[in-house]
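Anyone able to model this chain together with 2-phosphoglycolic acid?
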Amino acid sequence: MKLVIANWKCNPATQEEAERFFDMIEERTKKLGKIRNLKIVICPPFVWLSGLRGEIPNLRLGGQDCHWEQSGAYTGEVSPKMLKDLGCDYVIVGHSERREYFNETNEIINKKLLAALKTRLKPILCVGEKEDEEMGLIIKNQLIEGLKAVNRIQMQNIIIAYEPVWAIGTKNPCQPDDAMRAALFIRKILNELYNRKLAEETAIIYGGSVNSKIVLSYIKEAGMDGLLIGKASLDISEFIKIIEQVNG
Ligand code: PGA
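re: yes, here you go
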């Protein structure tokens, strides 16, 4: 099963546009006819979620973040339970923009991930190094701390997104070879933390300046299990091209 996940970030600016985007994606996805081994996940801003409810099983919703508690006195927060109630099956945790601009530490991300799992949301845990950082050291730490107290059964519901920070929103994507190397490294760490079966079966996707021209190299050459797409997911015809290619 391949995953194409759209991270709309803080876009679009109106509910009307969000619904238009979603409807277009749904329309075009229906026209693909047979959707093979593909799941499309749209992660819009929280406030647009209630207006987006798709009819096709392969088009799902996700949150871009969540709180670590299910309810309570936490002004401004949105809990995993609320996301579930709005029809989400997935939630992104630990995106580099949350780490960078909202001071999220691995410890906080771990709490969010555990709360998401409890609510039966599938967490998409983002890991990746900055330009001046060593990939191995950073990712190992992000995985060890981010996955703390996650057991083997829960691990079956986690997706790891390799998103090198220097490749996000830069028009400078990571070379497929390097993405493959990072994915192998992630599997090695998962083998150390869990076992070989989980290391092999965990979905590892790539994100960072993906567009329709390069998308297949990540799937075919680098063997990634899918993609996390920011900017290109807001250009609907570009996003559809990506979906078409991954669908094959
Ligand atoms: P980008 O964003 O595709 O715009 O680089 C990816 C992401 O932040 O998940």
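The domain at 2-247 is CATH 3.20.20.70 (TIM Barrel).
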